[in-house]
Amino acid sequence: MSADLLSSRDLVLAAWRARTVVPGFNIPYLPMMEPVVRALRDTGSFGFIMVARLEWEKFQAGSLAAIRKEYGRVGDPRHTRLHLDHVPAIDEDQKVVDFEGVIREAIALGYESVMVDGSRLPLEGNMAASKAIADMAHAAGLPAEAELGAVMGHEAGPMPSYEELFASGRGFTDPEEAARFVKATGIDWLSVAIGNVHGAISAARNLKKVEARLHIERLAAISRAAGIPLVLHGGTGIARDCILDAIRNGIAKINIATAIRQPYEAAAGRSVAEAQQAVYDTMIGILRSELELEGLAATLGVKPQGVTP
Questions:
Q1: Could you state, in order of their start, the residue ranges of all structural domains in the chain?
Q2: pTM of the model
Q3: Which residues are part of the catalytic machinery?
Q4: In the chain, fewer beta carbons within 10 Å around the N or the C end?
Q5: Buried/exposed code over 55-87 (b: 16+ C-beta within 10 A; e: otherwise)
Q6: Fold for domain 3-299?
Q7: Phi and psi (nearest 5°) for 71?
Q8: What pLDDT digit, counting tens, does each position of 219-254 carry?
Q9: How far apart are CA 304 and CA 128, in angstroms?
Q10: 10-25 pLDDT, tens per residue?
């Protein structure tokens, strides 16, 4: 089957059924996109090129249109799809967001999947927002992602210690709520909170990210209850064995941001070329060693250009 016949929905479903995972890579700085795509191509892998609202609000992604334009220049349908990541109903500064307007714009621009984040709303409000976006996306032939529970780390200001968060289970996704949520909303992919944390704008943004761990038993229960592909946000800093165990228990998409952002930022003061090389080198390590996703494109049914030795 040719790449243009495989939708984002098809690809994630294929990963879910094969008990593998499609990685997604956030682009807070436009020059990062080219080395991310190049690394996916050179390893015969596959991944989502992603932007979240905070990456054009608080970093230098520019805008939905700027990301779409750069993707048109460097994207490769044999190895990539374009995904709109977190568009919150209420943002990290507790401001109400016109999430429907943002997502409508992304669909019009040609994004191939979208995510609404209603996790700061009460459950009923989250379900209503997620259903509205699922209906909008499905009308355009696209899959929609939503979040249940609260993956911490996108909040302004300091977080509690990681050990405190994990021990308390604060924000963890509830399996029974997951079953209800999926049935009520019709979403295609569910982002879950099981010990994972974001690293984008938390107090530790420029420090080594905490080594998170995952509550695999809870994940397995969520997977059974939800019955759809699950998404792991905050993929940087989680032990490799833990991630591989999560993939075996329902995670079909994993989001990676800090791992490639920090090398870019560290080298950008010297030159953009050095920063891009740092991203490329990091990507190769992630795809070949950490996630073992070399050759993923063929596994998903996409005919890759070829693998660089």
A1: 3-299
A2: 0.89
A3: 85
A4: C
A5: bbebbebbebeebbebbeeebbebbbbbbbbbb
A6: TIM Barrel (3.20.20)
A7: -65, -35
A8: 999 999 999 999 999 888 888 888 999 999 999 999
A9: 39
A10: 999 999 999 999 999 9
